[in-house]
Every structure is written in structure tokens, then in C-alpha cells.
Design a protein that fits this description.
Helix content is about 10%, strand content about 30%. The protein is mainly β and about 375 residues long. It folds into two domains: about 140 residues, no CATH class; about 120 residues, Tumour Suppressor Smad4 (Sandwich), CATH 2.60.200.20.
Length: about 375
């Protein structure tokens, strides 16, 4: 598992695509490429997927880049690729290592274990173009950078005893006072007691004895029968809610009717595109279930390979389907009943209601209905 330590960014003109354990630095002219790579990194893509995306148009189309990936926590492996005139310096148990781009090579690659700190130096802007803005700490995002650093993790205490000072001893409690002698209980006189009230008065019936069982005539209506076993306590009130919640998760939340004639139930993650890839499933409530891959025809190549994700919602979206555009080339248009059309933002989930229609382009549309 990669560390979620923040990257420290110095302000500049390069694009920094930063994720948990991965960083890609691209020159100022690569704005479109940076946006495409960010869509991958935001979906949790690893080193190999990001490198494939960088090289998709060939090395000649990309004059410079820096790719850094860390895995396995503080003692894990750090892998660095440098193309162009940039430097990456790493410090660790084996000392300092500097990786410098070489114009005569496609790129320079280096791997080190146990790297504690890392610093990336990028080509500086022209005279008078630098900035004095304060450094920015980022865990994940797409930002402008002039350099990058990853400092060592703060040291943790060796044990709880060293980290927490002991509480002071509580003071001795005072001696409790001697209990007072109880007063003799007053016993109401019986009917034949001459010193008692008038037998014809209101106290003609003696109180039942306090020891032993109560007289049935004086027992409360809810008292259990003598010798009966107490019944079981009722279960926690959340038990029924949990069962209802699980029942909702076991049923499809929507059905997708494709204009091509295909039908898909949304009872798990559904990936739609020309050649959907199961590895594009984002993390979440049902990331452990095998996704349903729906391959569609796109004669004009307007639909991306993995264009759209539709999944059952969780939390406040439980019982509804949620659609997310996966950074497709031509986008996805959504029309909900009674609302104007909207274009989905890449990576932003939108809940769907029955009757909604999704337009992926190239003549393909999807209608959302009740399952």
C-alpha cells in the first residue's frame, strides 16, 4: 500500500499530476495530456498504466516528463523515470542518488528501496518569470509546479508508555460517616387495636406484608407470574435497518435499455464503452464485485474504450443508480425528466432517476428504467 504523505509543490509553470504515491510532471505545453493523465491517476491507475498513457502518441510527441511512483510504505520501493532536462534527488539508507535526464537517451530510470526524502528540480522559467508564492502541500490533485519535494515521515513514539505521560494518582477517598441508627418503622394498627383509629374509619384494612410475595389483589397488572422465566430482551433497533439495507443492496437499483437493443441491470458496477476495461473500476462500496462489461459499437470512434460507469449508489444514494463519465473523449450528455440537458463532468458521479437518458454519441443512447 502506498503512503498518503503530501507532496510539497514549489510554484511554477509545469503541470503536476499528483496522487497517493504517484506523481507525473509535464512541461507547460502539455495541458491536454496533463488532463488525460489526471483522469487516470484520480481513478487509481498505477505506474504501468500511467506510463502507457504518456507514450501513447510516441516519444517524439513528448519532449520531457518526470514520473515518480512509491509503493510499500516508508520502507518500500521508489521508482523514477526522467526524460528531458530535469533532476530527481533521493536520500535513503544507501546515501544520496541523483537521476538526471540525458538528451541522448529515451529516459533515465532508477529504483531505490527505503527512500526517505525526494526532490525534483525542473527547468527554471526565463528571467523575471519566477514567483514568490508559498509552497503548496498536496496529497492528490492537478496543479502548476516549479519543483516537487517529498519530506520524510514524522517519527512516531516507540511505545504508548513513552508517548503518554502517566496520570497522577487519585487522592485517597474520605472515610464514610458512621450510618445513623434506623428509626423503628411505624406499623399501622390492626382492626382490634384500641389505640388505633376508629375501626369504622378509612384504615380498616391492614397493608400487605412487605416481605414475601404480594397479595395478588395488590400486584400490578404487568407483574410476571411467580416462577416464570423472564422473556428475551428485544434486539437492537438497527437490526431491522441492517436487514433492509442488505436487502436493498441485493436487488438491482435500475435497468439500462440501450438503443442498440442491449439490456443491463445495475446490481453491480457496469462499465460501458467500445472495449471496457475492468481495471477502470473506481474504489467504493462494491469495488470487490466483478464488474459487468458492456461493449458497444462506435463506427466513428466517438465512444471511448471505457466511456461510462453506472453503479448502485451508497449512503445517501442507496437505492439509486449513479453515473460517472470516465474522462471520455467526447463526453456524456444526461437528460433527467423535467430538467435541462447537462454534460457530465469527468469523475463526478450523478444520481439517476427513472426516465433519465444518457447520450454517449455515435447514435448510442441509454434509457434508465425501474428494474
Amino acid at each position: 500500500m502506498s503512503e498518503r504523505r503530501p507532496w510539497t509543490c514549489r510554484d511554477g509553470e509545469w503541470f503536476g499530476v499528483l496522487g497517493a504515491g504517484i506523481a507525473v510532471l509535464l512541461p507547460p505545453a502539455e495541458k491536454a495530456r496533463a488532463a488525460a493523465v489526471w483522469a487516470l491517476v484520480d481513478d487509481g491507475a498505477g505506474f504501468d498504466d500511467v506510463l502507457d498513457a504518456l507514450l501513447r502518441d510516441g516519444l517524439r510527441a513528448l519532449s520531457a516528463f518526470v514520473l515518480v511512483a512509491r509503493s510499500g510504505g516508508a520502507g518500500g520501493t521508489t521508482r523514477v523515470l526522467v526524460r528531458g532536462s530535469a533532476d530527481v534527488r533521493m536520500t535513503g539508507p544507501e546515501g544520496d542518488t541523483t537521476v538526471t535526464g540525458d538528451p541522448a537517451r529515451a529516459w533515465v530510470e532508477e529504483s531505490r528501496d527505503g527512500v526517505a526524502t525526494l526532490s525534483v528540480s525542473l527547468p527554471q522559467p526565463g528571467p523575471g518569470e519566477g514567483t514568490d508564492d508559498a509552497d503548496l502541500s498536496v496529497v492528490r490533485g492537478l496543479v502548476r509546479v516549479g519543483g516537487l519535494e517529498l519530506a520524510s515521515a514524522p517519527a512516531r513514539p516507540a511505545s504508548v508508555d513513552e508517548a503518554v505521560s502517566p496520570l497522577p494518582e487519585p487522592p485517597e477517598p474520605p472515610e464514610p460517616p458512621e450510618p445513623a441508627e434506623p428509626a423503628e418503622p411505624a406499623v399501622p394498627p390492626g382492626p382490634g387495636d384500641a389505640s388505633g383509629p376508629d375501626p369504622d374509619g378509612p384504615y380498616t384494612e391492614a397493608m400487605p406484608a412487605l416481605s414475601g410475595s404480594l397479595d395478588p389483589e395488590h400486584a400490578p397488572a404487568h407483574a410476571p407470574d411467580a416462577g416464570s422465566e423472564p422473556g428475551p430482551l428485544p434486539g437492537p433497533p438497527t437490526e431491522a435497518w441492517l436487514l433492509a439495507d442488505q436487502d436493498a443492496r441485493d436487488r438491482p437499483v435500475a435497468r439500462l435499455l440501450f438503443s442498440s437493443g442491449d439490456v443491463a441491470d445495475v446490481d453491480r458496477v457496469v462499465l460501458i464503452g467500445r472495449a471496457p476495461d475492468a481495471s477502470r473500476v473506481r474504489g467504493g462500496d462494491r469495488a470487490d464485485a466483478e464488474p459487468l462489461l458492456v461493449a458497444v459499437s462506435s463506427p466513428q470512434q466517438a465512444i471511448s474504450a471505457t466511456h461510462l460507469e453506472v453503479r448502485p449508489g451508497a449512503g445517501p444514494d442507496l437505492g439509486l443508480a449513479v453515473a460517472t463519465d470516465l474522462g471520455s473523449t467526447n463526453g456524456t450528455q444526461l437528460v433527467q425528466p423535467g430538467l435541462p440537458a447537462e454534460n457530465l463532468q469527468a469523475g463526478v458521479g450523478v444520481r439517476l432517476v427513472a426516465g433519465a437518458e444518457l447520450d454517449l454519441g455515435d447514435g448510442l443512447s441509454i434509457r434508465v428504467v425501474e428494474p
